[in-house]
Amino acid sequence: MKVVPNTRRMRIALSLTGGALAVLAAVSGAAAPAAATPGANDDKPKLSLRASPSVAFSPARIYLVAELRGGANDYQEYYCADVEWDWGDDTRSTSSADCEPYEKGKSEIKRRFAVTHEYKVAGTYRIQFRLMRKREPIVATSTTVRIREGIGGGR
Asked: Do 147 and 58 contact (CB within 8 A), yes or no?
């Protein structure tokens, strides 16, 4: 094949993995795409939320853990953030910390937030966890718990 200056060739590869079709295309002779800023999203911790148990009989005490995993220990956006729990039962809990000023490479984010909450009435509740800054959420996640009617009625 003869290559003519200022022209582009495209190579397409198809693959089938787990029932999904992937299309890969490679263009030769074209400028390489701009590289992403190194560490732009690699440094950002990921937020998860677990409830235990996720199904219970009323009255039920639910243990919840929100965790920031991966990313930088000194991720500035999450440093010294306020915490808000929305329990899904028309109640909320908030907390804030008094922290030293942020210092890159020295300040560390809090990675684990653990609490318990009691549900006295049967129902399905969406629990939301938010890290807040200036009353605005900067990262949030949620989970659902189902509370079934216990021996005492609870409805």
From this structure: yes
Annotated domain spans of the chain:
46-148
3-class SS of residue 76: helix
Q: Distance between CA 128 and CA 94 in Å, rounded?
A: 12
Residues in the chain, overall count: 155
SS3 107: coil
- The answer to whether the beta carbons of residues 130 and 140 sit under 8 Å apart is yes
Give tens-digit pLDDT for 83-101.
Answer: 999 999 999 999 999 999 9
Residues in Cβ contact with 33 at an 8 Å cutoff, skipping those fewer than 6 apart = none
What pLDDT digit, counting tens, does each position of 116-127 carry? Answer: 999 999 999 999
Question: Which residues, in sequence order, are CB contacts of 109 under 8 Å at separation 6+?
Answer: 45, 68, 73, 74, 75, 78, 79
The architecture of the domain spanning 46-148 is Sandwich (2.60)
Answer whether residue 68 shows pLDDT above 80.
Answer: yes
Say what the pTM is. Answer: 0.70
Cα–Cα distance between 123 and 80 in angstroms, integer?
A: 34
